[in-house]
Design goal:
Strand order of the largest sheet: 2-1-5-4-3-6-7
Helix content: 25-40%
CATH class: Alpha Beta
CATH architecture: 3-Layer(aba) Sandwich
Number of helices: 5
Radius of gyration: 19 Å
Largest sheet: 7 strands, mixed
Number of domains: 1
């Protein structure tokens, strides 16, 4: 055997083994799973129907083939939401020309955040429509998605309904098959940098 072949094979195997891979999550406590027993039955974001800031229908089909970052905000929030929107803007800037990525901000006060309100908010916050969708619609739908599917409130989880206000700083990373691959603090710059890094890891998988 060629004396150079073994080192080359070893290097190739090492690179393969060291390739970073993100875990999967299927419970509100975010216990990592490194493999899916059955991809067809593993937890994923369910079908839905909402409306974006351009008054167009937005469904789970719009997520096909996309890596997504999701959060839950409201436009009149005086507290954490402006910082979360600023963090999302940082992600938008990093991936502005990357059509693999979608940013999703769901309104938790859809009765106030109508399409015109979201459109003005998008203008004020320099939201690029091609990259970042502001979503409104049925309140029960949004709260069910947030709590039972995105797990944005791990401590409250499935036991809360839309009568209990949904307010969280969490960002959730979703892969191209609508599986959860990470959760991040939208108020923490270090966590946002980790999210940006993990998006790049997910793109390379």
């Amino acid at each position: 055997m060629n004396k150079y072949l073994i080192p080359i094979l070893f290097l190739m195997l090492s690179c393969k083994e060291n390739k970073k891979h993100l875990p999967y999550y299927d419970t509100p406590d975010f216990t990592p799973k490194w493999e899916m027993a059955n991809e067809n039955t593993f937890h994923k974001i369910r079908p839905f129907k909402l409306i974006n800031q351009e008054n167009k229908s937005f469904t789970e089909k719009d997520l096909d083939g996309k890596i997504c970052v999701a959060d839950f905000i409201f436009t009149t929030c005086p507290g954490i939401c402006p910082k979360m929107t600023s963090s999302m803007a940082d992600i938008q800037k990093e991936f502005i020309n990357d059509d693999e990525l979608l940013l999703l901000s769901h309104s938790v006060t859809p009765e106030k955040d109508s399409v015109p309100v979201l459109k003005q908010y998008a203008i004020d916050k320099k939201v690029e429509f091609k990259r970042w969708k502001l979503l409104t619609g049925d309140k029960n739908e949004i709260y069910d998605l947030g709590r039972r599917y995105y797990f944005v409130e791990e401590d409250l989880g499935v036991n809360s309904d839309s009568a209990v206000f949904l307010h969280t700083e969490n960002f959730v990373l979703i892969d191209k098959n609508r599986h959860i691959r990470g959760i991040y603090n939208g108020l923490d710059p270090n966590s946002i940098q980790n999210l940006i890094r993990d998006i790049k890891v997910l793109k390379a998988e």
